[in-house]
Amino acid sequence: MRTLAVVIRDPYQQYEGLRTSLGALLENLHVQMIVLDHVIQNMDEAYSENMEFLDEMEGERFSNNPENVEQYGFSSITLDKAGDVLRDADIVIPF
Question: Could you tell me the fold of the domain covering 3-94?
Answer without folding.
Answer: Hypothetical Protein Ychn; Chain: A, (3.40.1260)
